[in-house]
C-alpha cells in the first residue's frame, strides 16, 4: 500500500500538471490571438494608406480612373497607380462592378492558380472589416486579408482589400509547444521533488508526535507531555491541544482512582461491621438480646450501604444524562416550610436552633422531590457540622429573574485548603468535621446537591471561614406568571 507521503505527492503533481497545462494553453491562445491581431492591424493600416491615396487624388480633382491601351478596360490612372505602388503588401482595389481595377506588385507576382484562389476568396471577403485567412499554394504561406470600404467614391470604386503574410501566427504555437516540452517537465519535476521533500519533513514531525503519544500507554504514564522541539514547530497548535487533552485525561484518571479508592473504603467499613455483627449473632453462647442488638446494627449498616449505592447511581445517571427530572411548577414557600419543619426535629436532637425568619411566595419549574432533596441536604449538613448551642438560619429571597434559597450556620466552617474540593465526590474535610458526626457522611451530598441545582438551570455556591460558619446559596430561575398559568 502506498504511503500517505507518496499519495499526497502524486496528488500535488497531478494538480500541478493540470494547472500548468491549463496555464500554458491559456497563454498560447492569448499569444496567438495577439499575433493575429497585430497582423490584422498591419493589413488594415496598409488598406487605410491606399484609401488615403485615392481619396486625396479625388479631392484634388486629379483623374483617378483611366483605360488600358489594348482594350477599353477601366483601370486606375497611372499617377494614382504610381503612388499606390509605394504601399507595401497585397493591395487590390475593386470597383462597384466587382472588377479589380488595381493589383499591387505582390499580387501580380502570384501564379495563375493563386490568382484564381485570391479572386474567389476576395469575393467572399466580409465588408465589415473582419479578417479572412487562406493559403496560397505558390507561396506556401497563409495570407490574411481585410476589407476597407470606399462607399461614396465619385470614381465608382467600392472597396480596397489589403493583406499580409500570416504564417507567423501559425508558427507561434509550434514555438511555444517546443518550449513547453522542455519547460513544463522541468516545472513538474521540480514541483514533485519539492513536494516530496516538504512532505517528508512534515511526516517526520507527525511520526515524532505519534511516537511520543504511543509511549503514553496507560494511566500511569499520563504525567508525560509532548515536547515542542524544532522538528515539531509546524504542529505547535496540535502539540498544545494534545497536551491539554492528556492533562484532562490525567485529571480524569486521578479522579477515577480516587473515586474507586474512596468507594472501596466506604464499603469496607460497613461490610466489616456487618460481618462482625453476623458472626456475633451466630455464636451459640450469645443471648437473644445480644443477637437482636447485633442484627439491628447489621441492618443499620445495610441501610448505610444502600444509601451509598443509591447516591452513586444518582450521580452515574446524572453523568450519562439519563436522569429525567419530572418538571412542573413548584411553589417554594410550602416546600421550604416542609424542609424547615424537618430541620426543627433534626436540630432539636443536636441541640441546634433552626430559624426561618423570612420566605417568599414564588414558583419555579422543577422536580419537587429533587428540590426537597437539595434543600434538605444543605440543611442536614449545616445541622451536622454545627456544635450544640449553635444556630442554623434558612431564608428565601425573591429577585427580578431568580429566587435564592440560603442556609447559614454558625458551625465549624471549612478551611481554605479544603474549600476548592468542596463539591468533589467522596470529599470530606479534615478530622474536625469528621468528628462532628458519629461516622460522617459519604462525601456525596454536596456533589448531588450541585448537580440538582445545575439540572434546574441554577447554581449552588458556598462561602465559609474556618471556625466562623458557612453559607450555602441556591439560585433558581423564576417561572413567569404566563408560564405558570
Please provide a brief summary of the model.
The protein has helices at 4-60, 78-84, 105-108, 112-123, 167-214, 236-282, 288-320, 332-350, 368-384, 431-435, 445-455, 481-484, and strands at 65-67, 74-76, 90-95, 100-103, 132-136, 141-149, 157-165, 328-331, 353-358, 363-366, 391-398, 402-409, 459-464, 470-477.
How does this structure look, described?
This protein has 485 residues and is α+β, with helices and mostly antiparallel strands. It has three domains: 4-173, Beta-Lactamase; 232-320, Helix Hairpins (Orthogonal Bundle), CATH 1.10.287; 328-484, Histidine kinase-like ATPase, C-terminal domain (Heat Shock Protein 90). 54% of the residues lie in helices and 17% in strands. The chain has twelve helices and 14 strands. The protein has helices at residues 4-60, 78-84, 105-108, 112-123, 167-214, 236-282, 288-320, 332-350, 368-384, 431-435, 445-455, 481-484; strands spanning 65-67, 74-76, 90-95, 100-103, 132-136, 141-149, 157-165, 328-331, 353-358, 363-366, 391-398, 402-409, 459-464, 470-477. Strands 4-3-7-6-5 form a five-stranded antiparallel beta sheet, sandwiched between helices. A five-stranded mixed beta sheet has the order 9-11-12-14-13. A hairpin with a 7-residue loop joins strand 6 (141-149) and strand 7. Helix 8 runs parallel beside helix 9 and helix 9 runs antiparallel to helix 11. The longest helix has 57 residues, at 4-60.
Amino acid at each position: 500500500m502506498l504511503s500517505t507521503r507518496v499519495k499526497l505527492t502524486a496528488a500535488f503533481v497531478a494538480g500541478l500538471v493540470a494547472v500548468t497545462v491549463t496555464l500554458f494553453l491559456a497563454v498560447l491562445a492569448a499569444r496567438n490571438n495577439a499575433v493575429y491581431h497585430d497582423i490584422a492591424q498591419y493589413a488594415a493600416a496598409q488598406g487605410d494608406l491606399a484609401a488615403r491615396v485615392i481619396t486625396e487624388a479625388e479631392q484634388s480633382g486629379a483623374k483617378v480612373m483611366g483605360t488600358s491601351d489594348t482594350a477599353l478596360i477601366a483601370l486606375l490612372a497611372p499617377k494614382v497607380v504610381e503612388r499606390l505602388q509605394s504601399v507595401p503588401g497585397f493591395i487590390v482595389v475593386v470597383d462597384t462592378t466587382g472588377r479589380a481595377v488595381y493589383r499591387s506588385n505582390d499580387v501580380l507576382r502570384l501564379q495563375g492558380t493563386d490568382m484564381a484562389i485570391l479572386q474567389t476568396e476576395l469575393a467572399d471577403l466580409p465588408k465589415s472589416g473582419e479578417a479572412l485567412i487562406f493559403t496560397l499554394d505558390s507561396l506556401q504561406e497563409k495570407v490574411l486579408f481585410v476589407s476597407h470600404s470606399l462607399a461614396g467614391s465619385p470614381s465608382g470604386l467600392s472597396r480596397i482589400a489589403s493583406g499580409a503574410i500570416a504564417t507567423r501566427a501559425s508558427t507561434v504555437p509550434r514555438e511555444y509547444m517546443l518550449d513547453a516540452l522542455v519547460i513544463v517537465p522541468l516545472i513538474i519535476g521540480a514541483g514533485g521533488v519539492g513536494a516530496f521533500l516538504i512532505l517528508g519533513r512534515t511526516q517526520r514531525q507527525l511520526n515524532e508526535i505519534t511516537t511520543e503519544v504511543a509511549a503514553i500507554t496507560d494511566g500511569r504514564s499520563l504525567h508525560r507531555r509532548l515536547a515542542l522541539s524544532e522538528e515539531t514547530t509546524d504542529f505547535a497548535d496540535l502539540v498544545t491541544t494534545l497536551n491539554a487533552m492528556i492533562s484532562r485525561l490525567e485529571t480524569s484518571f486521578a479522579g477515577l482512582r480516587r473515586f474507586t479508592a474512596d468507594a472501596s473504603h466506604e464499603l469496607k467499613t460497613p461490610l466489616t461491621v456487618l460481618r462482625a455483627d453476623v458472626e456475633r449473632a451466630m455464636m451459640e453462647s450469645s443471648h437473644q438480646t445480644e443477637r437482636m442488638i447485633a442484627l439491628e446494627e447489621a441492618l443499620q449498616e445495610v441501610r448505610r450501604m444502600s444509601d451509598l449505592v443509591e447516591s452513586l447511581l444518582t450521580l452515574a445517571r446524572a453523568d450519562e444524562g439519563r436522569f429525567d427530572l419530572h418538571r412542573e411548577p413548584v411553589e417554594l414557600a410550602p416546600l421550604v416550610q416542609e424542609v424547615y419543619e424537618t430541620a426543627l426535629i433534626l436540630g432539636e436532637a443536636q441541640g441546634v436552633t433552626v430559624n426561618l425568619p423570612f420566605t417568599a411566595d414564588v414558583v419555579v419549574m422543577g422536580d419537587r422531590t429533587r428540590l426537597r432533596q437539595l434543600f434538605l441536604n444543605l440543611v442536614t449538613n449545616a445541622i451536622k457540622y454545627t456544635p450544640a448551642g449553635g444556630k442554623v438560619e434558612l431564608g428565601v429571597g425573591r429577585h427580578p429573574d431568580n429566587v435564592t434559597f440560603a442556609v447559614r450556620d454558625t458551625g465549624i466552617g471549612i478551611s481554605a485548603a479544603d474549600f476548592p474540593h468542596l463539591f468533589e465526590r467522596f470529599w470530606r474535610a479534615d478530622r474536625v468535621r469528621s468528628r462532628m458526626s458519629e461516622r460522617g457522611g459519604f462525601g456525596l451530598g454536596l456533589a448531588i446537591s450541585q448537580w440538582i441545582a445545575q439540572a434546574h438551570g441554577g447554581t449552588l455556591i458556598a462561602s465559609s471561614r474556618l471556625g466562623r460558619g458557612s453559607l450555602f446559596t441556591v439560585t433558581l430561575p423564576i417561572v413567569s406568571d404566563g408560564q405558570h398559568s
